[in-house]
Specification:
alpha/beta; three-stranded parallel β-sheet; 8 helices; about 15% strand; globular
């Protein structure tokens, strides 16, 4: 089932370009952050001597599909993720647990005191105690993310929605919507809070 889904997400043009590149360059090492296994399968076929490492970006509860590929090694960021890999059929010896690499300022936000969190809310005009839904732009087509934000605004009447990320196309598409919902939506570029 996952392979059919992959074919839908990754068109033939990309497959051919990736296959041609790998066959020509024959890299010794490939590191993939990609969720679907098709790129890894293409790499195994067209660069068979390459050592392939998949970095699993879901730190705690990765879907079994992350491990449904012929990678030589998987890097995960928690013992819980490693156990999920093993339950999905991956040999424990092929799964390495590494420290979660994330910008320190984001970790500092997670360790913020209640007073610091309330100061952030005040700075961004978010009512104290109201639920906040954070959405990271990118990784989804702009129209889909816009529909998601619209759905949250219509279905969760009291929630504040914070949208952030690095996808300029998504950012520009959301600006008109945010201006209409300015009391409930905060739209950030890639920023450090």
């Amino acid at each position: 089932a996952w392979r059919r889904l992959e074919e839908w997400f990754i068109d033939r043009w990309l497959y051919n370009k990736l296959a041609a590149y790998l066959a020509r360059e024959q890299p010794a090492e490939i590191i993939s952050f990609y969720f679907y296994s098709l790129p890894v399968r293409v790499a195994k076929k067209y660069a068979p001597r390459a050592r392939i490492t998949v970095v699993v970006t879901d730190p705690y509860s990765p879907a079994p599909a992350w491990f449904d590929c012929p990678a030589d090694q998987f890097i995960v960021f928690s013992e819980a993720a490693k156990q999920r890999a093993v339950r999905a059929g991956t040999a424990a010896a092929r799964v390495a647990v590494r420290p979660f690499f994330i910008q320190e300022s984001f970790m500092a936000a997670a360790r913020a005191t209640s007073e610091q969190k309330e100061a952030w809310r005040a700075k961004h005009r978010i009512p104290p105690g109201s639920p906040v839904i954070a959405i990271s732009g990118g990784g989804q087509p702009p129209a889909r993310l816009a529909r998601l934000v619209r759905g949250l605004l219509s279905g969760v009447p009291l929630a504040q929605v914070v949208v952030y990320g690095v996808d300029e196309v998504v950012f520009k598409k959301l600006v008109p919507m945010v201006s209409r919902e300015s009391a409930r939506v905060r739209l950030f570029g890639f920023v450090l809070f």
